[in-house]
Structure formats: structure tokens, C-alpha cells
Design goal:
This protein is mainly α. It has helices spanning 7-16, 24-40, 44-70, 74-94, 98-123, 126-143, 147-167, 171-190, 192-195, 201-224, 226-231, 242-264, 271-286, 291-306, 309-329, 334-358.
């Protein structure tokens, strides 16, 4: 894993290069202390209780409004849902304390539920409900200034888009769109520094994590609940074979690996680059029937590159989940599966030994 330098090391290096004046360390430490004080001034249990109080208060308010206004009135539910969602966005813009943010988030989610549910009951169409979800969540992604809401908006909008395409009977387009969403997620992480310096800097990471969650959710449904997943398609609708989807996701992962090597200053055609590409290609070919394995490997690569603990945790959990699915999908006897696991384990150990001997800098821990 890449070494994370301390504030002292960074400032000292910049001072040695003449980029920062000598007294810049004092200013940097003061700024860091101010930021830490602002984020840790309230104990965690007080934050939890404050957030719980906000959610409880909003639930009572929503229950009262629902019983008195929108029971059996779909148009009223739609209007009230939009008012609550807009009011939550306005409230969130007005302050940044824990109670206010949690109150606005809970009210906003309830408003979104009322709006989407009202549309679904009014038009009696699953397609219209999915389309309304995509439109509403896309607007909230850019207008609602909250990381949690933006993550949820990215997740709900992308999932609703896949469901909408599936309900329209465009099975092939669903898988193509899933690969496209994967490309977008990888680009957001690869271009994180540049994008976060732009106008929509606060949208980048919530949207990226939402797209990764969508990817894993869709692949989990396809791998573990395929009968239910296929039942969502219209009769006669086709879907891409698992092998084709795996190859598409493998291309995205190989591209990300190339960009990471380029950013690290490692020659793609050198020993390290060739070893990386061959290992990823072999992984994709060995797990053609389980697209989630190469997808999780790509997310694992991004997690190490961006030193994101959350991304690494998600990748590890899902690579184990899809690995179990791959094991049970093998059309082999238990003895053959055991030998396959033994052989793959020895292969990975051999690859590790080769990597450490061929690239000794990889085993240095600093």
C-alpha cells in the first residue's frame, strides 16, 4: 500500500524545495487544528442522539401529514412530496449542524417516497415510476448539498435506469449500460483530483460511490438471484452472456490499471506493467461466468490507488462474495473443486513470490 506522508513531512519537503516559507508549518498546523476542533468539538454520542432526535421529530411530522392529507389522494401525495423535498433542500442550504442536516435528510427522503409512490399509484405504471425516480434523483444529485443524499441519489437513479431499461425489454442495453456506469465510476476515481477542483467538486465522490454500489448490487442480483433477476425481463428479452459482460468489465479494469501505472510513472510495457495486465487478463478468463470477480478486482485496484478504506472494504467483501458464487457455479465434483481451489491458491502464492523477487521494492514497508 502507498505510504501516506504526515503533515510535517509534506510541509518540510515543500519548505526544502522553496515552495512554502519557513513559517508555513505553523500556519498549516493552526489550520489543521481549527478544522479538527470544528469536526470533533461534539462527542460522537451527542451527534448520534441529535441525529436520532431529528429523525424522530420528522417521522412524527410526516405521519401526521400523511394521515391528514394524502391518504387515498395520489395527487396530494405528489404535491406534498415535492414540497417536502424542496423544503428539505432549502433547509439544508440554511445550516450545517447535525440536527438540521439529519432533519432535512429525513424529511427529504420521506418527500421523495411520497412523490414516487404517488406517481406509481396515480399512473399505475412501473415504467413511469422508474422514470420519475431517475428524473427526481438526477435533479437532487446536483441541487441537494449533502453527501449522503447525493450518494443515495446516484444509487437510486442508476438502479432505476437499469430497471427502466429492463422493463422496456432492452436486456442487451441493460448490460451495456452497466458497463457504461462502470466506466463512469472508474473515471470519477481516476480523475478525482481534477474533478474536485471544478464546479461540482462535492458531487464527484458521492456519485462515484453510488455507481460502485449500483455495479455490485446489479452483479449480485445477476449472480446469486438470477431467476428473480431474469424474471424482471419481458418475455423474449435477451441478455448478454456472462462471458461477454466479464470481458467488457475486464477491459474497463485493464484501462484503469494502465492509467494507474501511467500516473505512478511505471512503464506499461515494462515487467511490472506486463505482469499486472497478464494477471488481470488471466483472472477475467478464469472467471468468465462470474463477472463480479473482475469487477471487484477493478474496484480493489482503485481503492489501493486512492487509498480509500471504504472502497477497499467494499471490494474485499464483494470479491469474497463473488468468489463463493464462482465456486458454486463450477460444474465440477467436490473433489475437482477442491483441486481447483488448491491449484489457484498455489498459483497466487507463486505469483506473489515472483512479484516480490522480480520487484523487491514492493516488499518494503515504510
Amino acid at each position: 500500500m502507498a505510504f501516506k506522508p504526515s503533515l510535517r513531512n509534506v510541509v518540510s519537503q515543500l519548505q526544502a524545495e522553496g515552495v512554502l516559507p519557513v513559517d508555513a508549518e505553523v500556519q498549516a498546523r493552526a489550520a489543521l487544528a481549527t478544522r479538527l476542533e470544528s469536526t470533533t468539538g461534539m462527542p460522537w454520542f451527542v451527534r448520534v442522539l441529535t441525529g436520532f432526535g431529528a429523525w424522530l421529530a420528522s417521522l412524527f411530522l410526516i405521519a401526521f401529514l400523511s394521515l391528514g392529507v394524502v391518504v387515498g389522494k395520489e395527487v396530494g401525495a405528489i404535491i406534498l412530496g415535492l414540497l417536502l423535498t424542496g423544503g428539505a433542500a432549502f433547509l439544508r442550504h440554511r445550516g450545517n449542524n447535525v440536527f438540521l442536516t439529519q432533519l432535512a435528510l429525513s424529511i427529504g427522503l420521506a418527500g421523495q417516497g411520497l412523490f414516487i409512490g404517488g406517481v406509481g399509484v396515480l399512473v399505475d405504471s412501473t415504467e413511469a415510476t422508474a422514470l420519475a425516480t431517475v428524473l427526481l434523483q438526477t435533479v437532487l444529485l446536483f441541487l441537494y448539498p449533502d453527501a449522503i443524499q447525493r450518494f443515495l441519489s446516484s444509487l437510486f437513479a442508476s438502479l432505476a435506469l437499469l430497471i427502466l431499461l429492463r422493463l422496456w425489454g432492452l436486456g442487451l442495453l441493460v448490460d451495456v449500460t452497466l458497463v457504461g456506469l462502470t466506466v463512469l465510476a472508474h473515471l470519477l476515481f481516476l480523475q478525482q483530483g481534477r474533478l474536485q477542483a471544478g464546479r461540482w467538486s462535492e458531487v464527484v465522490m458521492p456519485a462515484a460511490f453510488g455507481l460502485v454500489t449500483t455495479l455490485f448490487s446489479a452483479l449480485l442480483m445477476r449472480s446469486w438471484f438470477h431467476d428473480f433477476y431474469k424474471g424482471l425481463f419481458r418475455e423474449g428479452s435477451a441478455e448478454l452472456p456472462p462471458g461477454v459482460l466479464t470481458l467488457g468489465l475486464a477491459v474497463v479494469t485493464l484501462y484503469s490499471a494502465w492509467r494507474v501505472l501511467e500516473e505512478l510513472g511505471v512503464e506499461a510495457g515494462g515487467p511490472a506493467g506486463v505482469t499486472t495486465f497478464v494477471a488481470l487478463a488471466l483472472l477475467a478468463l478464469l472467471t468468465l461466468q462470474t463477472p463480479g470477480v473482475i469487477a471487484a478486482a477493478g474496484v480493489l485496484l482503485l481503492g489501493f490507488h486512492r487509498r480509500s478504506v471504504v472502497l477497499l472494504g467494499m471490494a474485499v467483501v464483494f470479491i469474497l462474495t463473488f468468489g463463493v458464487g464462482y465456486y458454486y457455479d463450477l460444474q465440477l465434483t467436490l473433489l475437482a473443486k477442491s483441486l481447483a481451489l488448491l491449484g489457484s491458491g498455489l498459483l497466487l502464492l507463486g505469483l506473489r513470490l515472483f512479484t516480490l523477487r522480480r520487484f523487491p521494492a514492493a516488499e518494503e514497508v515504510r
